[in-house]
Amino acid sequence: MSDRVLICEVGPRDGLQNAHHLMPTETKKAWISALAAAGLKEIEVGSFVPPKLIPAMADTGEIVAHARTIPGIKVVALAPNLKGFQRAIEAGAHKVTFPVSASRKHSESNVRMTPEQMVEEVRKCAQFPHPGVEIEGAVSTAFGCTMQGSVPDDDVVRIAAGLAEFCDYVALADTVGYANPAQIKRIFKKVSSAIGSKLEAAHLHNTRGLGLANALAAYEVGVRTFDSSLGGLGGCPFAPGASGNVITEDLVFMFEAMGVSTGIDLDKLMAARKLMTEAIPQEPTYGHFSLAGYPKGFSAHA
Q1: Which of 143, 63, 130, 134 is nearest to 102 (CA)?
Q2: Taking a C-beta distance cutoff of 8 angstroms, is the pair 243, 232 a contact?
Q3: Alpha-carbon span 234 to 229, nearest angstrom
Q4: How many DSSP H helices and E strands does the chain contain?
Q5: pLDDT band at residue 233, thresholds of 50, 70 and 90?
Q6: Is 145 in the active site?
Q7: Which phi-psi region, left, alpha or beta, contains residue 263 (left: φ > 0; alpha: ψ -120 to 50)?
Q8: CATH 3.90.170.10 fits 6-292, yes or no
Q9: pLDDT tens, residue by residue, 92-144
């Protein structure tokens, strides 16, 4: 098993969709270009949802087209249904992620479908012609839910197994930041036993300050792909006070300090962070590396 990890930057989607201030389209393009220049090979650039619901994602088609011009990156977009999937394909996304909540209450409240019905909705999308486009099924609220509370492990395993039947990859998401390291290890092991190598990524939030601890726990049980957000931008609208995803620059520093290669240049990543914070200065951002910088004698993994 490789010690190298892949970090997917989700700030342009997960961060901006919850921001109170819009980032101009041209600035968003420059930000994504800066992220790619820092060495990020996979970037979730937006979502194909109705613009009236999430105005920040209204320009996703144009953003995907721009990202496609950047050599060497996988352009990822989120879609909630077949219409969104068709738009993602037309725009040229390399990979499309479909969120499916393991929490029955959360799923019925947000999409008016049970988790099982949502799995079938994604199955319909997978049956639509999509040559060269990868499909990821993301099991959201896999570690707990603000509406339902605890989510049984067996529900997570069942939903993941259903998605694995027709998705290229499956991810587990701590959507509202309820997870702890022991839980991360337990559930990732159970899902891995059920679907094997199709389990690819961890999408973790830092709501209660356990984001890095949970990422390390996932790494220790074999996960090598992680979603994160520069500056911890964003948060979950259903978790008041949630501080967004795991912070990209802190995650990169942790792995590089451990001797695990990310392929990301921290100095260039901080330049991308500066561009982001200057574009939407009213939005709260987080992070320890941005405050403390490098420890004396630090050397990134070659």
Answers
A1: 143
A2: yes
A3: 8
A4: 11, 8
A5: very high
A6: no
A7: left
A8: no
A9: 999 999 999 999 999 998 889 999 999 999 999 999 999 999 999 999 999 99
